[in-house]
Sequence to fold (225 residues):
Amino acid sequence: MIDPQILARRLGHAFTDPQLMRQALTHRSHGGADNERLEFLGDGILNCIVAVLLYESFPRIDEGGLSRLRARLVRQESLALIAQNLGLSDHLLLGEGELKSGGFRRPSILADTLEALVGAVFLDAGFEAARQVVGSLMADAIAGLDPKAEDRDPKTRLQEVLQSRRISLPVYRVLATRGAAHEQQFEVACEISTFQISAVALGSSRRAAEQLAAEQALQQLKRST
Fold:
């Protein structure tokens, strides 16, 4: 585990109780006090804070529209991407089996751990501290929301962006397949040669991994253009 203070600085929160952060980073496969209860708490806190942020950011959007926007922000793919940007994979405490199977890249584990961290911040310093952390983590995602856009999947959105610019469509390649047949993990790359973009993601199916890789490629595309 890398120095936890690095992650604390990235979160923008100095824990009064460092054990809360350690527990939030501990997967059940590691043994000891794991993060499942913190994940439960963090999920509720995260949904509440995102609802507040959207309510304040989009004063003209009705309840249905706000609900759809929140669903985009708190879905597993979105949370896993934020976790990756935080470098959360380097801080996870996993059992040997999960380490060998690439659990540190698994979207479900990354998203769940991010929720557990939100729960840990809430217990450590209260709602306002958790709001500050979530607001910082979600700032770019909220700024990039288009309330008029349909809830299209990342692959479709990426394809439409590239077609609108007359750029060749991305190429998806399976880099590796891990695990037993009933719990396989697919590592997939989404490549856009025009911009020299190669986004890699791990998913429980090839389709899921492609969607996650496409979401990452979209983010890279926004930064490079």
Observations:
- The longest helix spans residues 36-57.
- The longest strand covers residues 171-178.
- The CA atoms of residues 201 and 212 lie 6 Å apart.
- The mean pLDDT is 89.
